[in-house]
C-alpha cells in the first residue's frame, strides 16, 4: 500500500483591508422631473414593427391593405408616404412626430393593451403607440373595419 502524501496547502490571499474614505463619495443627483427617462420603445424603428403587425393580422386572415388603412386612419400616412417612412427607418418617436395628422377620433379608442388601459396612459407618445397597437389587435381579432375606424 502506498502512503498518502500530505496535501499541500496553498496560501490564501487575503483581500486588502478597505481604507476609510476621508471624504464621502458625491451622490448622484436624482433625475429631474423636467427630463423624464425616455422609454426604450420610442427608439424602435417603425420599419421593424410594421412587419410584426402584418404577421399578426395575416395569421388571422386579414390583409396588408387593412393594416395600411388603419395606419392611415390613425396617423394620416398613406400610400407612398407610408412606404417612404418605412424606408427611412424612422423610430416610433419620429414616426408619430412627423405624422401628417392624428385622427381627431382617437379619444374613442379605449380598452386594454399589454395589461394597461389605453385611456389611463399619461405619456402622449406612449398613448399614440398603444392606440396603434389596440387598432392592430382589433383588426387581428376580426372586428369590422367600420368599428375599428370608429365610424
Could you explain the architecture of this structure?
This protein has 151 residues and is mainly α. The protein has a single domain (40-148), classed as Helicase, Ruva Protein, domain 3, CATH 1.10.8.290. The chain contains 6 helices and 2 strands, in the order H-H-H-H-E-E-H-H. The protein has a two-stranded antiparallel ribbon with strand order 1-2. The radius of gyration is 27 Å and the shape is globular. 17% of the residues are buried.
What attributes does this structure have?
Helicase, Ruva Protein, domain 3; mainly alpha; 40% helix; 151 residues; single chain; 3% strand; globular; two-stranded antiparallel ribbon
Q: Biggest sheet, in brief?
A: 2 strands, antiparallel
H-E string: HHHHEEHH
Question: Helical proportion?
Answer: 40-55%
CATH architecture: Orthogonal Bundle
What is the name of the CATH topology? Helicase, Ruva Protein, domain 3
Spans of 5+ residues with little confidence (pLDDT < 50)? Answer: none
Order the strands across the largest sheet as they lie in space. Answer: 1-2
CATH class category label: Mainly Alpha
User: Given the helix and strand composition, which structural class is it?
Assistant: mainly alpha
Number of domains: 1
Count of beta strands: 2
Oligomer: single chain
Strand content: under 5%
Cα end-to-end separation: 95 Å
Query: Mean of residue pLDDT?
Result: 85
Amino acid at each position: 500500500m502506498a502512503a498518502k502524501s500530505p496535501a499541500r496547502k496553498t496560501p490564501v490571499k487575503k483581500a486588502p483591508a478597505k481604507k476609510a474614505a476621508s471624504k464621502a463619495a458625491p451622490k448622484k443627483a436624482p433625475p429631474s422631473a423636467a427630463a423624464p427617462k425616455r422609454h426604450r420603445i420610442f427608439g424602435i424603428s417603425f420599419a421593424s414593427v410594421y412587419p410584426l403587425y402584418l404577421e399578426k393580422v395575416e395569421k388571422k386572415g386579414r390583409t396588408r391593405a387593412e393594416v395600411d388603412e388603419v395606419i392611415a386612419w390613425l396617423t394620416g400616412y398613406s400610400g407612398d408616404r407610408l412606404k417612404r417612412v418605412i424606408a427611412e427607418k424612422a423610430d416610433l418617436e419620429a414616426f408619430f412626430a412627423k405624422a401628417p395628422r392624428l385622427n381627431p377620433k382617437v379619444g374613442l379608442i379605449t380598452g386594454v393593451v399589454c395589461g394597461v388601459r389605453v385611456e389611463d396612459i399619461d405619456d402622449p407618445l406612449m398613448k399614440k403607440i398603444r392606440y396603434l397597437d389596440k387598432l392592430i389587435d382589433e383588426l387581428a381579432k376580426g372586428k369590422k373595419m367600420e368599428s375599428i375606424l370608429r365610424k
